[in-house]
Amino acid sequence: MRKLRVTVVATILLLALSAGIASAQDFDTYSKSIEAFASGVASSLPLNSSIGLNWSHAHIGNFPHLGIGAVVGFSTIPYTAVSPVLEALALKDTLEANENFGYIAEYGMPLPAYAVEARIGGLILPFDVGVKFGAVPAGVDTTNLPGGLSFDYFMAGIDGRLRLNRGRFIVPTISVGGGYNILRASVGLQGLTDGDLTISSFTDPRDNTEVDIVLGNPSVEYFWTANVIDLKAHASWNLLLFTPYVGAGASLGFGSAGGALRSEIKSPNFDDQDWADINAALVAAGEGPLPEFSTDGFSVTADMTGGWAMRLYGGVSVNLFILKVDVTGMYDLVGRNYGLTLGTRIQL
Questions:
Q1: Contact yes or no for 212/204 (Cβ under 8 A)
Q2: Greatest CA span in the chain, whole angstroms?
Q3: Which of 125, 181, 222, 235 has its CA at a distance of 20 to 30 angstroms from the CA of residue 44?
Q4: CA triplet 48, 252, 260: central angle to 5 degrees?
């Protein structure tokens, strides 16, 4: 439990600290560090979206067999994505020396996920179909939580699995399948400073003047989205009280992740057309565009460009009559990210 608390606190701390770069470093340092963080999140999204529907039994049986339950878990963001943020803040050496931070440096920072899930057996052919859904419950206000924290979350997915054989004794039941997952989430922190925040940022190419951006008590927001096609093969052994299982998956994902400072820009007094003109001039000069400036702040995003992510997973369920409790571990072979989930369900 102590490590879990440290993990949660460290996750929130890193999100908050990244915004502090703006007060101590120039704009370019800030944008590059947040872009590295966003790229790390993007690399973890296919694994994160696969949380849920990894039920222990390779096939739950044909209709009327069905089940419903819930799952919580996390996948990791590579520490190499977090490291530039800490280095820009001159905190990297200090935190890496802390024994409670060591396992984050080794395995990565956790990105949580949760969902309600259900599965029903098919007709005639030996297959089953599953759905999952996770969101902020209706009526729950997550825009103004204690400590200035806010969050939003949405996950949905569907899959189908076809049984290839019926396992007996040491021969496993094997199924293959595919599905589609959607993931959207954001985390924000409000009131990062006691007053205005000044960033020494860039030279306006229109008149070669130095421009300092002054933000009015900004809030920071991190956001990520993913649309993922998922293929998997699953093998399980039914040992009465226990059902061990292993599997492999391949995910093709499209989406993005990023970060933003949300704030009124008190200075300079530019409108959206001014920012567009500045970007056009910078591109013409070969210096590239600024991040996505507007009159309410700026953002930096990194795209998940559609590469394949390969994963291995495995675990065991404890079967107490119709109650099943699953523990699943996952490993992303391409991004070298880890995942862990805990699920429980009623399965008939």
A1: no
A2: 79
A3: 235
A4: 55
- CATH of residue 301's domain is 2.40.128
pLDDT above 60 (res 174):
yes
264 neighbors 293 (Cβ within 8 angstroms): no
Nearest one of 128, 164, 156, 133 to 55, comparing CA atoms: 128
- Residue 111 clears pLDDT 70, i.e. is over it: yes
- CA torsion sign, 154 to 227 to 108 to 233? positive
CB 179 within 8 A of CB 161: no
Which DSSP state fits 144? S
For residues 340 and 112, the answer to whether their CB atoms sit within 8 Å is no
Peptide bond into 112 cis (omega under 30): no
Q: In the chain, how many domains are there? A: 1
* pLDDT band, residue 280 (cuts 50/70/90): confident
Q: Which residue segment(s) compose the domain that 23 sits in?
A: 2-347
Q: Find the length of the chain.
A: 348
